[in-house]
Amino acid sequence: MRFTLDSNIPVRAATSPRGPALRLLDIILGAHTLVLSRFILEEVERVLLYPRIQARYRITTAEAARFAENLADAADLVEPVIDRPVILSDPPATLPGPIAMDNCERGPRFTPRLHRASHQHLHDSDCVIILSMEFTLEWGRPLTLQPATGNAIYSLDLHEIPNTAGVYVFFRRFGDTPSPLYVGMAVDLQKRIKQQLEFVKLMKYMENDLNGTRCVVYGEFKPKQGQGEDCLRRIERALIHYYLAQGHELLNIQGRRIRTHSLTSERTDSVVKKMIPAKMIFEP
């Protein structure tokens, strides 16, 4: 389900780490999709810098900007279409009163780390703003794909794969060295992997790849309270980005390789060498 929020809710979440507004964000980010616009994000940033909020929490301009950007990273951004006249005499925004959410279940933790005691000042470097959730996968053993008969290219004993939600990775194996080829997610691992084995175009690309035994491995998703299918998509994206950053070539766009860029850095200083990698692989 997709939710949008008035700017006062993120503001309350940023300043009250144990309040109901933060619990609401926990639930939305854990099991649903948060939809925001730049107008809402700009309002959040502006309200965090109001004098009366400054007097209590001492939030810096940089902290407010980082909080808004982290919200943008966690949400789907849309461009609203205005089809009615805008009322420009809106009264100044104020923080909302308590929200009645005593019966809401708690979801994965949303952690803005912007809260401050009324008269306590922290250095800017101590106020890192993080929107975080914790996921768990339980990985099975790798399964080797066997040559198939008929129109199929590979076959597999599907009874070894559970009918549970999770992610899977097709890969080729040279001894103990794996090289990932394709990453996917599924609400039913057995059903989805069966469909992929029947996807001739993807299997043909895997067959034509370099030498090595073709295998698949799956990770069962162990959801915490409030975590759903949207979390699986996040995990899938994280694995794709991880493998691309390691220099692996994936077949995740309809059986075609994902196009990547590389950055090579020339470094001479010893400190810079520890901080900047010699080569980086990243998506366009």
Short description:
The chain has 284 residues and is α+β, with helices and mostly antiparallel strands. It has helices spanning 8-15, 20-31, 38-48, 51-57, 61-74, 189-197, 200-207, 229-245, 270-275, and strands spanning 2-3, 33-36, 76-77, 137-139, 143-144, 146-147, 154-155, 166-174, 177-186, 213-221, 261-264, 279-282.
How is this structure best described in words?
The chain is of the alpha+beta class. The protein has helices at residues 8-15, 20-31, 38-48, 51-57, 61-74, 189-197, 200-207, 229-245, 270-275; strands spanning 2-3, 33-36, 76-77, 137-139, 143-144, 146-147, 154-155, 166-174, 177-186, 213-221, 261-264, 279-282. The strands form four sheets. Strands 4, 5, 8, 9 and 10 form a five-stranded antiparallel β-sheet that branches. It has a three-stranded parallel β-sheet with strand order 1-2-3. The chain has a two-stranded antiparallel sheet with strand order 6-7. Strand 8 and strand 9 form a beta hairpin. The two termini are 29 Å apart. Mean pLDDT is 77; it is low at 86-131.
Keywords:
19% strand, 284 residues, five-stranded antiparallel β-sheet, alpha+beta, three-stranded parallel β-sheet, GIY-YIG endonuclease, 12 strands
> Considering the protein shown, what is the CATH homologous superfamily of the largest domain?
GIY-YIG endonuclease
What is the CA-based Rg, rounded? 24 Å
The level 1 CATH classification of the largest domain is: Alpha Beta
Q: How far from one another are the termini?
A: 29 Å
Helix fraction, binned, reads 25-40%
Which structural class do you get from the secondary structure elements? alpha+beta
Q: What is the chain-wise order of helices and strands?
A: EHHEHHHEEEEEEEHHEHEHE
Q: Flag low-confidence runs.
A: 86-131
The shape is globular
Annotated CATH architecture of the largest domain: 3-Layer(aba) Sandwich
Number of helices: 9
What is the count of β-strands?
12
Give the biggest beta sheet.
5 strands, antiparallel
Give the strand content. Answer: 15-25%
Briefly note the CATH topology name of the largest domain: GIY-YIG endonuclease
